[in-house]
Amino acid sequence: MITKCLFPAAGYGTRFLPATKAMPKEMLPIVNKPLIQYGVEEALSAGCHTMAIVTGRGKRSIEDHFDISYELEHQIQGTDKEEYLKEVRNLMHSCTFSYTRQNEMLGLGHAILTGETLIGNEAFAVILADDLCVTETHKSVLAQMTELYKRYKCSIVAIEEVQMSEVDKYGVIAGEEIEEGVYRVNFMVEKPKKEEAPSNLAVIGRYILTPDIFDILRVTKPGKKGEIQITDALMEQARLKRVLAYKFKGKRYDCGSIDGFVEATNALYHKLRS
Ligand code: G1P
After folding, report:
1. A GO molecular function for this record (predicted)?
2. Rounded distance, CA 56 to CA 38, Å?
């Protein structure tokens, strides 16, 4: 059973400056909800009740968001405005939130290793909140992955096909399809040039990781951009044992980019109004 979900949330969000100068990118709203809340809702839908959030300087509002705001609650008590807080209150009742701070930005792999103190020795999920995943008729993307985990008990990354011109933005995998949409990874590389990419199967921000990943991350050398990459650690794990890549059912919006953010805003607005 996967019960904990890690949220790396220490990054600067430079692509959204100046909006993110004093506000965490995870708090940017899609319609009326911050990105991180969508992530927490997805984690809960997959059976995770423990949210482990790796924050950094300037990220206090994430903690405040998942806490009681006495003044506000007092103001709106008994009014129809209370309705607006229903969802986040439900999350606060159903989940626990723990935080640790990443002091230096040494990459996604380093952020995940920083979260070890909140995870311990068990398999866990990872959600990158700026990848917003929406499903219509299916279970949430993370719920699809935890289900797969029950059968295979190994690390799993979510993947989707992207244009070859886009592969240099992602971790890219190569593997052998062992059942429909499920690949056994035999190669993985972070942000390759299009000429060097092993496929167009790109990793998106949903992972299930077995805890031996921490030992691997401890000895993973800085890779692309001089950062410790989770992709490199997973490649090493795939060398030692089984790692799967799963072509999820649903739609993912790259809300770390302005185009993806606007697309997600429009799509969710229409959903809300229909
Ligand atoms: C990170 C990972 C990359 C992955 C991507 C998904 O990159 O390093 O492997 O494909 O998330 O969103 P980032 O977008 O943080 O540069």
Report:
1. UTP:glucose-1-phosphate uridylyltransferase activity
2. 20
Counting ligand 1 atoms within 8 A of each CB, the residue from 108, 166, 185 with the most, and so the one to mutate, is 108
Nearest atom, ligand 1, residue 202 CA: 10
pTM of the model: 0.96
201-216 pLDDT, tens digit each: 999 999 999 999 999 9
Helix (H) or strand (E) holding 231: helix 230-240
- Residue whose token pair is 């068990």: 122
* Euclidean distance between CA atoms 263 and 113, whole angstroms: 32
Write the pLDDT tens digit of every residue in 100-117: 999 999 999 999 999 999
Provide CATH code, domain 4-273.
3.90.550.10
Determine contact, residues 200/167, Cβ cutoff 8 Å. Answer: yes
Q: Are strands 155-161 and 243-247 parallel, antiparallel or unpaired?
A: parallel
For 213, half-sphere exposure in the C-beta direction (CA atoms, 13 angstrom radius) is: 35
Q: How far apart are CA 85 and CA 166, in angstroms?
A: 38
> For residues 92 and 21, what is the distance between their CA atoms, to the nearest angstrom?
27
